[in-house]
Amino acid sequence: MENLIRKLDLISLRLFVAVCQEKNIARAAEREFITPSAVSRRVAEIEALVGLPLIQRHARGISVTPAGDAVRRSALAIASNIEVLSAELSQFYSGAKGKVRVVANLSSIVQFLPEDIAAFGRLFPDVDIELEEQSSAEAVRAMAERAADFGICNAVCGIEQFESLPYRTDRLFVMLPKHHRLAEASHLRLAELLAENFVGLQRESALMQLLERESAALGGALNTRIRVHSLDAQCRMVHVGLGITIVPQHVGELYVDTLDVVLRPLVEPWASRQLFLISYGREQLSATAATLANFLIQRERPD
Q1: What pLDDT sits at residue 4?
Q2: In Å, how far from its chain's centre is CA 281?
């Protein structure tokens, strides 16, 4: 009996169930589109493995022995489990079930991804999303090491090696203490800010690289007095009067009602930034990852 699991096959069990249900080998063969002799041989092979008669053959059909009935019940249970497995696997193939690893920069996580992932989760509750915050440069490195299914980042060095699809656009605004001398301005330009104490993110962030590059193009440099790791800390430093900063619009809007700050548009052609979803090509993504990627790039955020 210890060889039973290794030697029994699903086709033989299915044919045996058909014989039990039809009470006739010929009718079972017709139902399963196979010859009666092949069905009879399969049943005989199961009987040889079990070591007991499973059916009794009569002139007009068969009857099932108690041992045969036990095999029939187990075969039906196995078939049911296979159907459940098939249905579950079809969800993986269709993208409705599985796990997706995403690396995304801070701007996308703070502004857009929470709502987008929540909306996706309502449609696909069986998909697990592992989201890791990285800078844009780190997201590119993680993708190069295949540490994630896809990434979301700004246009930084190295992005050209991936397929890049537009995800969202964010606009940069200047955040100032409410009583700052520039707080009454309707809009601001970078050149007006170079002499101000500036609160920035770490140097490798895409935002800081952009600001430092554009400052240099103006022949100056940001007077960065404080560097922090999060947008929240950046805004709180402005709140207590330690400097001014530049943040994505939707980030700043989270704080204008709770902190002693104001937001003013940064009027520069580069102040509108594109966020990209990067991958090695959607054809290389799993069905589940492709489902999430397609969902994200098709969503629009109203202004």
Answers
A1: 65
A2: 14
What CATH number belongs to 98-168+273-298? 3.40.190.10
Boundaries of every domain in the chain:
4-94, 98-168+273-298, 171-269
Token readout for 35 is: 């010859």
Span 171-269: which CATH code?
3.40.190.10
Buried b (16+ CB within 10 A) or exposed e, 62-85: bebeeebeebbeebeeeeeeeeee
CATH class of 4-94: mainly alpha
Contacts of 183 (CB under 8 A, 6+ apart): 176, 177, 262, 264
Q: What percent of the chain has pLDDT over 70?
A: 92
Q: Do domains 98-168+273-298 and 171-269 have the same CATH topology?
A: yes
Predicted model pTM: 0.65
Check whether 277 has a pLDDT greater than 90.
yes
- Of 170, 172, 176, residue with least CA distance to 199: 176
Instruction: Pull the structure tokens for residue 288.
Output: 């589940």
pLDDT computed for residue 291 by the predictor? 87
55-64, 87-96, 219-228: which has the minimum mean pLDDT? 87-96
Please, which residues bridge with residue 200 across strands? 227
How many Å apart are CA 235 and CA 213, to the nearest integer?
22
Quickly list H helices, 124-205: 136-144
All residues at 6 or more sequence positions from 167 whose CB lies less than 8 Å from its CB, including other chains: 108, 112, 152, 275, 276, 277, 296, 297
Name 24's bridge partners.
none
Task: Of 190-194, 282-286, 296-300, give the lowest mean pLDDT range.
Answer: 296-300
- Please state, in angstroms and rounded to a whole number, the distance separating the CA atoms of residues 134 and 89: 32
